[in-house]
Amino acid sequence: MAKTNKKFYVTTSIPYANAGPHIGHILDPLAADVLARYKRIKGNKVKFLVGTDEHGAKISRTAKTQNKTPQELVNENSVKFKELKKNINLSWDDFIRTTDKKRHWPAAQKMWRNLVKSNDIYWKKYHGLYCVGHEAFITEKDLKNGKCRDHQREPEVIEEENWFFRLSKYSKKIESAIISGKFKIIPESRRNEILSLIKSGLDDVSFSRPAKDLSWGIPVPDDPTQTIYVWCDALVNYISAIGYGSTRSVDISKFKYWWPADLQIIGKDNLRFHAAIWPGMLFSAGLPLPKRLFVHGFINVRGDKMSKTVGNVIAPEELIKKYGIDPARYHFLHEFPYSDDGDFTYEKFEERYNADLAKGLGNLVARVLTLAQKARLRQGFGGRGKITLRQNKNFIIAVKDAAKNIEKSIGELKFNDALVAIWRLIAKGDKYIDEKKPWNLDVDSKEFKEIIGSLLYLISEIGRLLAPFLPETSEKIANAVKGKKSIALFPRLQ
Q1: Residue limits of the Methionyl/Leucyl tRNA synthetase domain (predicted)?
Q2: Has residue 383 been placed in a domain?
Q3: Which of 24, 304, 330, 485 is the most core-located residue (most Cβ within 10 A)?
Q4: What was the pLDDT predicted at 340?
Q5: Residue 410's domain is classified under what CATH number?
Q6: Pairing between strand 94-97 and 208-210?
């Protein structure tokens, strides 16, 4: 497809590199991957960014327990996160690490200096609650029964002198940007949640830690006794990756081209950081806000949050090895509404696999190609109207309707709805075969060829529409229809 002048910059929250990935880490990059692939198909110039958050006290503590240096630990774990590209067939363009002294550190320090210029950094003695799990100071509002809501652990009480950021100064501007839609937060429930928090009052936030307590991080400019805290470090990755902080003209131009991000994708535990602190920083630095922020829920396992203590953590490679890449992609895109929490069980995974992939898509493709092979018919893949035989007008209309529904659903980040639109086409194909019963016809008859020609068109279009969601399967269907090879897409699980 021809290129357009439109750019699309999508980012994901960067996971903490104290350990390798689990299936919960799939949601951000998988959603971004579908969008990136779809936008590329539409001719947009796309940048899809992922990365790892590699500083902090927890990294130092974890490394010490494993007899490693912090750098050795994050090097090992960043590789594991990079392997998601192959394991889940992701198409990201860039991977940023916060330990990157060439690309990231200058950006974090430039952001700090710009906040200082705006008179938004000040010195304060601080007494507060520190959650080791979050690597962040939290408030009483974040506690339930005296424990962090997310980590079920009592916070540490810490008293120290730090640099602070005047987040309170930007409360009204952030609120106005959200209400006006200039900074759009999806879904509505998360928008309302952050607006409620803002209306209750945004407190200024601790922006540094004493270097004696947090040595593994980026030094505060002009103050070696302090280390930049997570906000002005990890959050800056979204702009450090596109040239912010660099003095090279090519990087300055790159930053101006790509920022603001068209979409940022995060989990619900990162809402306050990305919908309050990050916009406040951007306002202070004189930078535009991202256009949209999409906030998804968690993946639970049998109703429980994944935990090493409980022993229910599932690694992505474990799932892929057992079922394959596209079955995993399909499950998380179809079964998880993204706006809410989802529950994973192997039983539900296999049930959905057999019903939708083996019996549904796989069976239709196999039926059509088996019949087509009998008559040596093949249909080109790569656009509408390429079939040499007469097409079924109902199929053409159905495909156009499905494409419209997919475009709308992807725009609203409702990937399950987009897949439902494709599976309606599969059901339509199955019904057509059952009604026409082509196996009872002479393979040389005009009627047989018209029926199979129409079905080849349909599965070609189904394959084309699947490209952003199940890219491997889409390619297999294309090759099979072209006659390069026969396929059994999804063998039934016993």
Answers
A1: 141-369
A2: yes
A3: 330
A4: 85
A5: 1.10.730.10
A6: unpaired
Q: How far apart are CA 488 and CA 205, in angstroms?
A: 56
Q: Number of folded domains in the chain? A: 1
Q: What share of the chain is helix, strand, coil (3-state, %, to 5)?
A: 50, 15, 35
**Residue 339: pLDDT band with limits 50, 70, 90:** confident
Q: Which two tokens stand for residue 39?
A: 């936008």
Residue 469 is part of which domain span?
346-482
Looking at residue 442, what is its pLDDT? 86
What is the spatial distance between Cα 285 and Cα 116, in angstroms, rounded to a whole number? 9
Q: How far is CA 251 from the centre of its chain?
A: 25
Within-domain flag for 442: yes
Residue 300 vs residues 23, 74, 81, 305, 332: alpha-carbon distances, Å: 10, 26, 20, 5, 12
- At residue 373, the pLDDT reads 81
Select from 154, 160, 163, 158 the least CA-distant residue to 128: 158
Give the whole-angstrom CA distance, residue 487 versus residue 477: 8
Task: Give the neighbor-by-neighbor strand order of the sheet with 136-138.
Answer: 136-138, 121-131, 156-165, 205-206
- pTM, full prediction: 0.93
What share of the chain has pLDDT > 70, as a percent?
94
Residue 412: inside a domain: yes
